[in-house]
Design goal:
Blueprint lengths: L2 H8 L4 E2 L1 E7 L2 E7 L2 E6 L2 E8 L3 H9 L1 E6 L5 H7 L12 E3 L2 E3 L5 E13 L2 E13 L6 E3 L2 E3 L9
Antiparallel strand pairs: 1-11, 2-3, 2-6, 4-5, 5-10, 6-9, 7-8, 9-10, 11-12
Organism: Psychrobacillus insolitus
Keywords: Oxidoreductase
Pfam family, one: Flavin_Reduct
Length: 158
Protein backbone atom coordinates (compact mmCIF):
# COMPACT_ATOMS: atom_id res chain seq x y z
CA UNK A 1 0.00 0.00 0.00
CA UNK A 2 1.36 3.41 -0.88
CA UNK A 3 0.79 6.62 1.08
CA UNK A 4 -1.74 7.97 -1.46
CA UNK A 5 -3.88 4.83 -1.18
CA UNK A 6 -3.79 5.09 2.62
CA UNK A 7 -4.69 8.80 2.51
CA UNK A 8 -7.64 8.09 0.19
CA UNK A 9 -8.87 5.31 2.49
CA UNK A 10 -8.66 7.54 5.58
CA UNK A 11 -10.49 10.29 3.69
CA UNK A 12 -13.60 8.11 3.69
CA UNK A 13 -13.92 8.76 7.43
CA UNK A 14 -16.01 11.94 7.72
CA UNK A 15 -14.75 14.41 10.30
CA UNK A 16 -15.60 17.77 11.70
CA UNK A 17 -13.34 20.71 10.86
CA UNK A 18 -11.43 22.61 13.52
CA UNK A 19 -9.04 25.48 13.82
CA UNK A 20 -6.26 24.72 16.29
CA UNK A 21 -4.91 27.91 17.83
CA UNK A 22 -2.17 28.94 20.21
CA UNK A 23 -0.62 32.04 21.71
CA UNK A 24 3.11 32.63 22.02
CA UNK A 25 4.07 35.92 23.66
CA UNK A 26 0.87 37.63 22.47
CA UNK A 27 1.19 36.41 18.86
CA UNK A 28 -1.82 34.32 17.85
CA UNK A 29 -1.44 31.43 15.40
CA UNK A 30 -3.90 28.94 13.93
CA UNK A 31 -4.27 26.08 11.49
CA UNK A 32 -7.15 24.03 10.08
CA UNK A 33 -7.14 20.43 11.29
CA UNK A 34 -9.45 17.45 11.40
CA UNK A 35 -7.15 15.38 13.62
CA UNK A 36 -9.14 16.01 16.81
CA UNK A 37 -11.01 13.71 19.17
CA UNK A 38 -12.35 13.32 22.67
CA UNK A 39 -10.21 10.87 24.67
CA UNK A 40 -11.65 10.71 28.19
CA UNK A 41 -14.55 12.10 30.19
CA UNK A 42 -12.96 11.61 33.63
CA UNK A 43 -10.55 13.24 33.59
CA UNK A 44 -11.60 15.32 30.62
CA UNK A 45 -9.01 14.91 27.85
CA UNK A 46 -8.92 15.65 24.13
CA UNK A 47 -6.30 14.89 21.49
CA UNK A 48 -5.05 16.81 18.48
CA UNK A 49 -2.65 15.56 15.84
CA UNK A 50 -0.24 18.03 14.23
CA UNK A 51 2.11 17.26 11.30
CA UNK A 52 5.84 17.65 11.88
CA UNK A 53 6.11 20.33 9.17
CA UNK A 54 3.35 22.55 10.60
CA UNK A 55 4.53 25.80 12.18
CA UNK A 56 1.85 25.37 14.84
CA UNK A 57 3.59 22.24 16.19
CA UNK A 58 6.59 24.14 17.58
CA UNK A 59 4.35 26.93 18.84
CA UNK A 60 2.18 24.55 20.88
CA UNK A 61 5.32 22.90 22.23
CA UNK A 62 6.47 26.34 23.36
CA UNK A 63 3.19 27.63 24.78
CA UNK A 64 2.01 24.33 26.34
CA UNK A 65 -1.59 25.35 25.53
CA UNK A 66 -3.89 25.10 22.54
CA UNK A 67 -7.40 26.05 21.52
CA UNK A 68 -9.80 23.98 19.45
CA UNK A 69 -12.58 25.77 17.59
CA UNK A 70 -15.06 23.35 16.01
CA UNK A 71 -16.32 25.23 12.96
CA UNK A 72 -19.95 25.76 11.97
CA UNK A 73 -21.06 25.03 8.39
CA UNK A 74 -21.10 28.79 7.72
CA UNK A 75 -17.36 29.04 8.49
CA UNK A 76 -16.01 27.38 5.34
CA UNK A 77 -14.04 30.53 4.47
CA UNK A 78 -12.27 30.41 7.86
CA UNK A 79 -11.33 26.76 7.32
CA UNK A 80 -9.90 27.53 3.88
CA UNK A 81 -7.99 30.51 5.24
CA UNK A 82 -6.24 28.50 7.96
CA UNK A 83 -5.64 25.59 5.56
CA UNK A 84 -3.73 27.95 3.26
CA UNK A 85 -6.27 27.46 0.44
CA UNK A 86 -6.89 31.22 0.07
CA UNK A 87 -4.52 34.14 0.40
CA UNK A 88 -5.70 36.95 2.64
CA UNK A 89 -3.67 40.07 3.30
CA UNK A 90 -5.19 41.23 6.59
CA UNK A 91 -4.54 39.38 9.83
CA UNK A 92 -7.30 37.21 11.27
CA UNK A 93 -9.21 38.67 14.21
CA UNK A 94 -9.44 35.91 16.78
CA UNK A 95 -11.98 36.05 19.58
CA UNK A 96 -10.11 36.17 22.88
CA UNK A 97 -11.53 34.08 25.69
CA UNK A 98 -9.77 34.36 29.05
CA UNK A 99 -6.77 35.74 27.20
CA UNK A 100 -6.58 32.89 24.68
CA UNK A 101 -7.36 32.97 20.91
CA UNK A 102 -10.35 31.04 19.54
CA UNK A 103 -12.56 31.47 16.47
CA UNK A 104 -15.64 33.63 17.05
CA UNK A 105 -18.89 31.93 16.06
CA UNK A 106 -17.47 28.40 16.28
CA UNK A 107 -19.87 25.75 17.55
CA UNK A 108 -17.38 24.77 20.25
CA UNK A 109 -14.40 26.60 21.69
CA UNK A 110 -12.08 24.59 23.94
CA UNK A 111 -8.98 25.95 25.65
CA UNK A 112 -6.57 23.21 26.74
CA UNK A 113 -3.40 22.78 28.74
CA UNK A 114 -1.02 20.20 27.22
CA UNK A 115 -0.90 17.10 29.43
CA UNK A 116 1.18 14.85 27.21
CA UNK A 117 2.99 14.91 23.88
CA UNK A 118 3.38 11.71 21.86
CA UNK A 119 5.53 11.34 18.73
CA UNK A 120 3.60 9.22 16.19
CA UNK A 121 5.18 8.81 12.76
CA UNK A 122 5.21 12.14 10.95
CA UNK A 123 2.82 13.73 13.49
CA UNK A 124 2.79 14.70 17.14
CA UNK A 125 -0.28 13.96 19.23
CA UNK A 126 -1.03 16.36 22.04
CA UNK A 127 -3.30 15.24 24.86
CA UNK A 128 -4.94 18.29 26.35
CA UNK A 129 -6.89 18.93 29.52
CA UNK A 130 -9.75 21.38 28.81
CA UNK A 131 -9.60 24.45 31.04
CA UNK A 132 -12.62 26.09 29.44
CA UNK A 133 -15.36 24.94 27.05
CA UNK A 134 -17.99 27.01 25.26
CA UNK A 135 -20.78 25.34 23.22
CA UNK A 136 -23.52 26.75 20.98
CA UNK A 137 -26.16 25.16 18.76
CA UNK A 138 -25.70 24.82 15.03
CA UNK A 139 -24.65 22.50 12.25
CA UNK A 140 -20.96 21.56 11.96
CA UNK A 141 -18.73 21.97 8.93
CA UNK A 142 -17.71 18.49 7.79
CA UNK A 143 -14.95 17.07 5.61
CA UNK A 144 -15.02 13.72 3.77
CA UNK A 145 -13.40 12.27 0.64
CA UNK A 146 -11.29 15.36 0.12
CA UNK A 147 -14.16 17.86 0.14
CA UNK A 148 -16.28 19.88 2.51
CA UNK A 149 -19.70 18.54 3.36
CA UNK A 150 -22.69 19.19 5.60
CA UNK A 151 -25.30 17.09 7.35
CA UNK A 152 -28.28 15.96 5.34
CA UNK A 153 -31.31 15.33 7.58
CA UNK A 154 -32.97 12.93 5.10
CA UNK A 155 -30.29 10.31 5.87
CA UNK A 156 -30.53 10.54 9.66
CA UNK A 157 -32.42 7.67 11.28
CA UNK A 158 -33.61 7.46 14.86
Amino acid sequence: MDSREFRNAMGKFATGVTVISTDVDGDYHGMTANGFMSISLDPALVAISIGERAQTLKLIQESKRFGVSILAKEQLDISKRFAGQVNVEESFQFDVSNGFPVVAGALVQIICRVEQEIQAGDHTIFLGHPEQVYVKDGEPLLFASGQYASLNPQYVTS
